[in-house]
Design a protein that fits this description.
- The protein has 141 residues and is mainly β.
- The protein has one domain: Lipocalin (Beta Barrel).
- Helix content is 0%, strand content 63%.
- The protein has no helices and 10 strands.
- A 10-stranded antiparallel β-sheet has the order 6-5-4-3-2-1-10-9-8-7, with no helix packed on it.
- A hairpin with a 3-residue loop joins strand 4 and strand 5.
- The protein is globular and about 40 Å long.
Amino acid sequence: MTSEPLTSGRCLADFEGTWTLSRRIIHEDGPVAAFEGEARWQPSGGGLDYSETGQLRMPGHAPINATRRYRWEEGLRVFFEDGRFFHAVPARGGQAHHWCDPDDYRVTYDFADWPVFTTTWAVRGPRKAYRMISRYVRADV
């Protein structure tokens, strides 16, 4: 939980705690959806369990309660709940990639305003074309 200048990059412990999460999902051929909630990185077995909870709002629909879970390990390696590797977070910020045939997921991590940071996902596939921009603000300082 540090706010000093980024010299060697982020480490796993920097994420531990509770964050406010705001997300916009911008579909190329549809309305913009929004998610508001909370993200938590909690210690577990030498790594961090990530969970987010909140409400997803889409125009013309009732709000939906939404959750997501991942496992973060040393080296900022992120795994799906079932143990499959997802991607590695660049410690200084930057880009990562995940291919899930036939869909392509590309993310940019921006740590320039730490302890506020953003992720921007660009997703492309036969039935997918959207950008997902998430803003994390530390809530437990």
